[in-house]
């Protein structure tokens, strides 16, 4: 009997071990980088991925995400004890149901919509940004003259079974008020280190986080850009562009752009386009942050307070 139990235990240990080995380890921080958890945060080494021990009320990479549950099912999952039994296999519940699982406290305040951990890599891009130009250059299409623009990147509802996006709404208006371009769309991200729930084999140790932006415009244009995110830089290349037929356009054959955070409240967009005549255009646009959604906290609804 004794022997059988220890055999079973050995088998279990073996099973957990092989599973841990082939799982994607997601590190939110590195103990050798004192800045990786931001001011007041401390990096804790865990077997399923390093995590930040953040100042009260915060969580995530660099401790910049307000502590809250991402999925509306967290309270139920907790009652099913998933926080507890899933812990050795996956950091999913601790990351996504941080409040229910007792990983952090939100001090009675939370974001209206939670930013999912999968979007921690573009947290710096979330915000309302404003720009004013002295030239008509603009991506994806030029304006009739110098213009002002609002680029609004906001947290969106998290779909139950799909990749969570942030939503984008852009409005550019020429300074004389005669030309208005509006675009709506989404940004989605696929971090290289992602807890897919599947065991992945032969995966390299490091790689790029992928992003894509899909936009539609009031000028009859549909656009898909794809690229990578590294630190506080997003690089994009236009992969698909479809215009409403019958409207004359100086067709772009290639376009690339890049968003760079140059300070927590300043963003730079660099664009390079090549049109069908082979003419290359390059320009730079600066935005300043006029609203920070990440600090726009509301009281946690009573009755939902879990701690
Ligand atoms: C983004 O989605 C949220 C929630 O669905 C909505 O409240 C918000 O107005 C949208 N923002 C933009 C910029 O489209």
Automatic annotation (TrEMBL):
The cross-references to SMART domains, in alphabetical order and at most eight, read: ShKT
UniProt cross-references to SUPFAM superfamilies, sorted A to Z: EGF/Laminin, Lipocalins
Q: Which segments constitute the ShKT domain?
A: 67-104
Print the keywords alphabetically: Disulfide bond, EGF-like domain, Signal
Pfam families to which the protein is assigned, alphabetical:
ShK, THAP4_heme-bd
Task: Identify the InterPro entries for this entry.
Answer: Calycin (IPR012674), EGF (IPR000742), Nitrobindin (IPR045165), ShKT_dom (IPR003582), THAP4-like_heme-bd (IPR014878)
Q: Where do the EGF-like domain residues begin and end?
A: 25-64
What does UniProt give as the signal peptide span? 1-18
Q: Which cysteines are joined by disulfide bonds?
A: 54-63
Would you tell me the protein name for this molecule? EGF-like domain-containing protein
Q: Which organism is it from?
A: Caenorhabditis japonica
């Amino acid at each position: 009997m004794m022997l059988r139990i220890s055999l079973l235990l050995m088998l279990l240990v073996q099973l957990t071990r092989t599973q841990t080995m082939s799982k994607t380890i997601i590190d939110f921080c590195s103990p050798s980088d004192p800045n990786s958890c931001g001011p007041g945060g401390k990096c804790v080494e865990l077997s399923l991925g390093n995590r930040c021990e953040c100042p009260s009320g915060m969580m995530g990479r660099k401790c910049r995400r307000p502590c809250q549950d991402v999925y509306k099912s967290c309270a139920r999952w907790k009652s099913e004890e998933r926080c507890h039994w899933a812990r050795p296999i996956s950091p999913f519940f601790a990351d996504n149901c941080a409040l229910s699982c007792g990983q952090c406290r939100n001090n009675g305040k939370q974001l209206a919509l939670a930013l999912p951990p999968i979007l921690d890599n573009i947290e710096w891009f979330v915000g309302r940004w404003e720009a004013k130009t002295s030239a008509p250059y603009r991506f994806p299409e030029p304006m009739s003259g110098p213009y002002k623009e609002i680029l609004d990147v906001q947290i969106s509802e998290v779909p139950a079974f799909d990749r969570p996006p942030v939503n984008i709404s852009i409005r550019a208006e020429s300074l004389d008020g005669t030309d208005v371009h509006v675009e709506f769309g989404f940004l989605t991200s696929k971090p290289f280190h992602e807890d897919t729930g599947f065991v992945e084999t032969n995966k390299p140790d490091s790689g790029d986080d992928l992003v894509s932006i899909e936009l539609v415009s009031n000028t009859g244009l549909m656009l898909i850009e794809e690229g990578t995110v590294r630190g506080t830089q997003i690089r994009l290349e236009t992969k698909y562009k479809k215009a409403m037929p019958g409207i004359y356009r100086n067709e772009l054959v290639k376009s690339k752009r890049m968003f760079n955070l140059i300070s927590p409240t300043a963003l730079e967009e660099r664009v390079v386009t090549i049109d069908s005549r082979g003419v290359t255009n390059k320009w730079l646009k600066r935005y300043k942050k006029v609203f920070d959604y990440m600090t726009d906290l509301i009281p946690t609804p009573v009755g939902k307070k879990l701690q």
